[in-house]
Amino acid sequence: MRTSMTSVTAFVKSLPAGVLVRLSPAERLALIFSPLAIGGGVVTVLAIALLGPPFTDFLGANLPLVRFAVAASAILLMTVPTAFVLIYLELKVIARMNLRVGPNRIGPWGSAMSVVHGLKVLAKEDFAPTGADVTIFTLAPVVTYLASIMTLLVIPFAPGLIGQDLNIGLLYFFAVGGLTVVGLLMAGWSSFNKYSLLGGLRAAAQIISYEIPLTLSVVGVILLAGTMSTNRIVLAQSGSLLDWFVFRQPLAVLVFFIAATAEANRTPFDMTEADSEIVAGFATEYSGMRFGFFFFAEYVNVFIVSALAATLFFGGWTAPFNWPLAYDLNWFNPWSLGFFGWTAIVLAVLVIGTEFFAVIVRLFGGREWSAWDAMGLGFLIDLVLVVGILGLAGFIAFDWVHGIFWFMVKTYAFVFTFVWMRATLPRVRVDQLMGFAWKWLLPASLLNLFATATAVVLLNR
Amino acid sequence: MPPRQNASRPTTTGTRVQAQPQPSTDDPRIMLDRQIGADLFEPIPPYPPRTEREGEFYTLGDGEMFLNVGPHHPATHGVLRLVLKLSGEQVVDVDPVLGYLHRGVEKICENSDYYHVIDQVDPLEYISSLFQEWAAVLSFEKLMDVEVPRRAEYIRVLSGELLRIASHTLYMGFLALDLGGLTPILYGFIERDEIVEMLAALTGARMLFNYFRIGGVNGDLNHEFMSRLGDWMSRAARQTEASAGLLNENEIFVRRTRGMGVLDRATALRFGVTGGNLRATGVPFDVRRAHPYSVYPELDFSIPTRTEGDSLARYLIRVDEVRESIKIIDQCLHNIPDGPVMAKLPRLLRPRPGRSWGACEGPRGMMGVYSISDGSDGPFRFRIHDPSFVNLETVPALLPGNLLADTMAIVASLDPVMGGIDK
After folding, report:
1. Is the pLDDT of residue A28 over 80?
2. So what's the pLDDT on residue B3?
């Protein structure tokens, strides 16, 4: 970086005097950084030419490893937009329920709000209070975040679209998901703050108590499906709407949903960060990106428990009814067009489409549209249309697009319920919370397990 | 107070502590830990305890710790500070610390003339500032033997009852907010905003009205106020029932308030608690009926009471009071006579030497003013009886034995406003 910056300075000094002043800021930037871009391009091409073949050989020889790496990074990357969408959804939905407007300044309808939120959090000072155990204080958000997102590995998004189809998928889910409490305890202990300590201990008590009914409520599903693999549990429900386990395990769904709410620390069980009691619980002393990780983990957790509820009880990616317009696109061989064919098609669609819509905008929009504005709008319309048509075609032709659609519909229905509950309900007290878990949820889940086991034994014989 | 020998610094519990001499170690981290522990976790007052109670409170028992709630806690109402002694999450003892908002309003009032007192007492209980004005004005009118025109009295009752409703809707919202419910407070603010805008049309200000005058009110009813009021009255009862139903029928809310912070009748009377908090213990004491003032004797309304004395009862009393206030406003609108809104008074007010007590029923209880005149143009002595202060005094009696989670909810159910408490 240092050498490149010196070369940039040298390049700027070598320019004729007065050139930079005559240029616009954007042009100035482009001129200054063009040597860097050209140099970077040359280096990239050389690297691909020299290192490419051995690298592809290595990849070809280790396909499972490659698959795992791709899945892991895809999941890691997926959490960021998921958290952004969830945060925006929560801000907006709760605002509407409170008769407010909610975020409406950044992006259309304030949709870029959570992105800017994320940037703000990134830009904040990295701070640890006096007396904090800095090592544990730093590690705590990492542990919580990793423990939450690692559970995404066994969530089946669509047929074939699953991080790793483990045969002990559910066991893995609950084992890894239970680790979040370690992070919360670490945060509570290391912050050197009594509010944090109380929050961390509350988190430990709450999550451990609710883990038991949560896990027990799922055992009924395992008995019915005969497997712990999440993928095969979805396949076991894939016949019709009536095959969904929600109709065979209604009590388990109820127990699961309540326990999952407590597990994700959501209202009415948000004891760990009750702002009217213990300020912000374990996160009291956190700021900046460390707090950002806790925040992310919280929202990703909501997504994960919603996804698991959809997977276990509502048929996962299976459609509630048979799509009547299924169409087989297998006659179409994409390789037959070749490189030039594809280039021609893409160019034609983009250029002709943009021009076409630009002309329409100029015709109907009147004189206030300059040629460039019209082209921009035309390009946007073209893009939206192309993406829409491709998405619709994909929805009709490919079952994984289909699967993702239904999976997301079900998951976000649960997410919406969580948000709804947050806007509606007050918080229960700590002792009421624990009493509810041990006196009601645990017996209910045991009853459900007993009934399911009896039914499975009787009906299978 | 003897001079302190060692360096000290404020702690999380707010008391100053002495750094204890520590055995030296080679490991600087251990030294640091010990210093921090000594400084922050052992609240030894640097002075001999001023009272027996203080000495008892700042001595920790086995497994107990101090927790400092406020003055900048997200849920304390204003700048209230509670030093809690906790055993686990259970509150063992509590030491409320006041005075963060003290402005010496009473002294300022003694240094100003009778006209200026009215805007000085406004920001005390800022949620319902008309009632301090009312108490001050009542006291001064007794000093000066002023006859207030009946139209002015009706306008006072009308605006006061409107403000009582605004205050109670906020109370319900904040109680729910301290129990973790997000929405009621925003609904409450919507309703309060309508009332406050209405009063702004009448008085010219949204919060600190400065509207009542010795011998009347500042201005007559105007068109904008009346049209807003009519618009609001057409749906007030329905809106009240809707926002009350949001909480009354909420299982979590009811379970978290029923039986919490029970204030029994004897304790309440001993402390001198007034207002809804007293009526929730079964004592039908309301200044509007007990020591009638203004035109309340002519109006038909009832004094709701309950016997439980817990947070839920205090909340339900407020809901009932809102209903009664709507009834009173309705009667005022029907009975209000024509006439002047100000008595004829000299420019310079110089009552004969004497003393007077004027009290009105505010949203939080009896709001009283005791003033002594020495014959000059301002009060010689001026004292304010603020109901929030008395109500807050019961907190150390209510909190011990409850959980930390209920601390704020119980305090919120007493409805203190720190502006009035600290004066």
Report:
1. no
2. 44
Beta carbons of A69 and A79 less than 8 angstroms apart: no
Task: Select from B52, B73, B97 the last residue of a domain.
Answer: B97
Beta bridge partners of B368: B359, B385
Residue B115: inside a domain: yes
Residue linked to tokens 């686990």: B88
Among B97, B117, B142, the domain-final residue is: B97
pLDDT at B281 over 80: yes
The residues that bridge with B383 in the sheet, in sequence order, are B370
| Interchain contact A439–B (C-beta under 8 A) | no
Kindly determine whether residue B73 and residue A279, on different chains, have CB atoms separated by under 8 Å.
Answer: yes
- Asked if A423 is an interface residue toward chain B (Cβ–Cβ < 8 A), one would say yes
Q: What is the ipTM of this complex?
A: 0.78
Other residues' Cβ atoms within 10 Å of the Cβ of residue A38: 10
Count how many domains chain B has.
Answer: 2
Strand partners, B64: B87
Q: Is A276 in contact with B177 (Cβ distance < 8 A)? A: yes
Spatial CA neighbour of B11 closest among B71, B59, B67, B63: B67
pTM of the model: 0.79
- What average pLDDT does the segment A41-58 reach? 83
Is A97's Cβ below 8 Å from some Cβ in B? yes
The interface residues of chain A toward chain B in range 197-236, judged by CB-CB distance below 8 A, are 198
Check if B191 contacts A (Cβ < 8 Å): no
Which pLDDT value is given to residue B4? 45
Chain B nearest CA to A431, separation (Å): 9
CB pairs under 8 A between A and B: 83
Q: Which of A295, A313, A388 is nearest to A86 (CA)?
A: A295
- CB count within 10 Å of CB B369 equals 29
Interface test with B, best of A425, A432, A434 (most B CBs within 10 A): A425
Report the pLDDT value the prediction gives residue A4, as an integer from 0 to 100. Answer: 59
* Residues B407, B400: Cα–Cα separation, whole Å: 9
- Read off the pLDDT of residues A265-300 as tens digits, 9 standing for 90 and up: 887 888 777 777 788 888 888 888 888 888 888 899
Does A431 lie at the interface with B, CB-CB under 8 angstroms?
Answer: yes
What number of CA atoms fall less than 13 Å from residue A288's CA on the CB side? Answer: 10
> For the residues B168-196, what does the mean pLDDT come to?
88
Strand, helix or coil at A91? Answer: helix
Q: Which of B102, B144, B114 is nearest to B418 (CA)?
A: B102
In a shared domain, residues B237 and B286: yes
Query: Could you tell me the residue ranges of all domains in chain A?
Result: 124-325+400-460, 334-397
Examine the domain organization and report whether B52 and B124 are in the same domain. no
Chain B residues whose beta carbon lies within 8 Å of the beta carbon of residue A422: 182
Answer whether B201 touches A (CB < 8 Å): no
Chain Cα centroid distance, residue B69: 19
B258 and B314 fall within a common domain: yes
**Chain A interface includes B30 (CB < 8 A):** no
